[in-house]
From TrEMBL:
Domain Gfo/Idh/MocA-like oxidoreductase N-terminal: 2-121
One example GO MF annotation: nucleotide binding
Name this polypeptide is given: 1,5-anhydro-D-fructose reductase (1,5-anhydro-D-mannitol-forming)
Matches recorded under SUPFAM superfamilies: Glyceraldehyde-3-phosphate dehydrogenase-like, C-terminal domain, NAD(P)-binding Rossmann-fold domains
Classification of source organism: Bacteria, Pseudomonadati, Pseudomonadota, Alphaproteobacteria, Rhodobacterales
PANTHER family, per database record: BILIVERDIN REDUCTASE A
Pfam family, one: GFO_IDH_MocA_C3
Source species: Citreimonas salinaria
All copies of domain GFO/IDH/MocA-like oxidoreductase, residue ranges: 130-249
């Protein structure tokens, strides 16, 4: 499949270009940057034939079946709508949009146009998370009582731009990381949170946006979920714990872009290491996306998954802002 990049981003350079090219016949044919000079340099560095500084021109002229949108968050909605109107399949970065209503518009537009639309929630493609989901869905843990997500990291220096200082571009740890945690918990438990309470703060990096958040979610089954996201914790490590009546799974170092970390199960027989496959997360995701384009199955995280993760994240921010519990409005 031929891809055009909408956004000359670090995530495309670091992971996605490789994942597109790893598919049979996979190619990246064009890149869009608002700055033509940057676009030219990016195209040359990454061996991309064409660069554009205007989206409509790219959509009209680039030889592509699909576009990957990885601009700053406030641009995703309009760019996705334009690509869908041009008949392109779309992989859009999280958070899909700045509001749930906009995200719903994107997904409905894709449905009406008959194109595949997916959200780049990579974690549900990790071998570690697939193994955890198998433990949960097979009933090995029994009914789930609670989940704890710890996802407090030290934001790398190169990423300390719009994420920590530009609310209008969708900065803040909640749109950046809480959305991933929302998708991951939904993936493991197979249900959508109904209500949240939360706190957020600036603990040294944020300017006009939160750099740290903690929240507690109520699930329809009665399971309780707590999450911690931050940009300011150099040594905390990441992970997820899922506790059931028959067993607990504890996974450390797994809230990451790379296939690493440990997964252990503790049950009445003791504590066991759980083996998992170490495939590339993004390559697996792209394989499923391209299969969906061929009419086989669905992307690992589709548009509605992106709507729901955004709805949870925005409810967390609103709960923290107002100091009140928020019922989650999924916009449907
Ligand atoms: P970047 O900051 O690298 O890129 C965002 C935009 O900033 C680009 O579109 C580009 O504009 C501009 N830009 C990038 N680098 C420079 C530079 N050196 N100088 C000037 N401008 C620059 O963002 P990320 O790659 O970190 O994130 C992009 C999107 O991807 C976000 O929505 C984010 O949430 C998401 N993301 C998702 C991840 C995942 O695993 N799913 C991981 C990381 C990010 P232009 O295109 O106009 O040149």
């Amino acid at each position: 499949m031929k891809w055009a990049l909408v956004g000359a981003s670090r995530i495309a350079a670091g992971y996605m270009i490789r994942a597109f090219r790893a598919q049979p016949g996979g190619a990246v044919t064009a890149v869009l940057s608002a700055d033509a000079q940057r676009g030219a340099a990016y195209a040359e560095t990454h061996g991309i034939d064409r660069f554009f500084d205007d989206l409509d021109t790219l959509l009209a002229e680039a030889d592509c079946d699909a576009v990957y949108i990885s601009t700053t968050n406030e641009k995703h909605c309009e760019q996705a709508l334009a690509a869908i109107a041009a008949g392109k399949h779309v992989l859009c970065e999280k958070p899909l949009a700045m509001s749930v209503a906009d995200a719903v518009r994107m997904v409905r537009a894709a449905e009406q146009a008959g194109v595949v639309f997916a959200t780049n929630h990579h974690l549900r493609n990790a071998g570690s998370h697939l193994a955890i989901r198998e433990l949960v869905s097979s009933g090995r843990l029994g009914p789930i009582l609670s989940v704890r997500v710890f996802h407090a990291v030290s934001l790398p220096g190169a990423l300390r731009g719009w994420r920590i200082s530009d609310a209008a571009a969708g900065g803040g740890v909640i749109p950046d990381i809480t959305v991933h945690d929302a998708d991951t918990v939904r993936f493991h438990l197979g249900e959508d949170p109904v209500e949240v309470v939360a706190q957020m703060t600036n603990s040294g990096l944020g300017h006009g946006v939160e750099d740290s958040a903690m929240s507690i979610w109520k699930m329809p089954s009665g399971a309780m979920v707590s999450t911690h996201e931050s940009f300011t914790h150099p040594f905390a490590g990441t992970g997820i714990e899922i506790h059931g009546t028959e067993g607990s799974v504890v996974a450390r170092g797994v809230m990451t872009q790379d296939p690493k970390g440990t997964v252990t199960l503790t049950d009445p027989e003791g504590t066991h290491d759980i083996p998992y496959d170490t495939h590339d997360l993004y390559e697996r995701s792209m394989g499923l996306f391209e299969a969906a384009v061929r009419g086989q199955g669905r992307p690992s995280a589709d548009g509605w998954d992106g709507v729901k993760s955004l709805a949870v994240a925005l409810a967390v921010r609103e709960a923290a802002r107002t100091g009140t519990a928020q019922k989650i409005d999924y916009g449907v």
